[in-house]
Amino acid sequence: MLYGRRVIEPQRVPHGQGPRRFILNKSFQYKYCWYMVTAVAGGAVLFLLPAYYFIVQNYDLFKSLAYDTHPYLVEHLEREVTWLKIFLSASFLFLMGVTLFLGIRMTKNLLSPLVTMERHMHQLMLGQWHIPDYHLPEEDDYRDLAMTYDYFYRALKANTETELKLLEKLSIDPQNREAYAAWKHLLAEKRARLGIREEFITNDSVVDLSEFDQKRRVS
């Protein structure tokens, strides 16, 4: 029912065959991923720099005490400082990598329904009204927008079907070839838009029939 309850059936994707393309719009995704990485990196630097400073200061103090009391501990302390530096650097790089991955994944999930809707709308603009209905995968967002678009698409399709039925009810005199050719052209165009196969009368055919009708009247 067009004007009844609007329900979008989830499109099931078989296991292992989900979309693997993460980059849908480079400029959009890279821009917002850069914002996220910059924000997280700024927060991490604000924490890591003071931590690194105090760690180095404390270990310098420990080494000076070790030289005076237990010199054999100096090597152990230096090894700990080295491992702490490696750990802090690796943690920072890992945090940036995870942030970049999550940013790309999040922006992909935001764009995927819009890209699918755009492709469906592009097919409608080309007059392909017989294409399958728009379905939004269950895990995607924009449920309200998808429902509104689906309702809009179904309403336009219903209007086209109504126009076709009204055109079919018209009775055009075949003797009036210009009007008859235009009527057949409209019928063929509406049926082709709805996926109803029929021999399509082109504009050239309409012009030829019009010229023939004019010649017949002159003669």
Give the SSE layout:
Layout: H1 26-68, H2 73-125, H3 143-169, H4 177-193, H5 203-218
Keywords:
single chain, 5 helices, 219 residues, transmembrane helix, mainly alpha
Concise summary:
With 219 residues, the chain is mostly helical. The chain contains five helices and no strands.
How would you classify the quaternary structure?
A: single chain
Give the helix/strand class. Answer: mainly alpha
Q: Compute the average pLDDT.
A: 76
Give the helices and strands as they follow along the chain.
HHHHH
Largest β-sheet summary: none
Rg over C-alpha atoms, rounded to the nearest angstrom: 34 Å
Number of strands: 0
Helix percentage range: over 70%
Tell me the strand percentage band: under 5%
Amino- and carboxy-terminal Cα gap: 55 Å
Given the structure, what is the number of helices? 5
Q: Can you tell me the overall shape? A: rod-shaped
Any low-confidence stretches, pLDDT <50, length ≥5? 1-19, 199-219
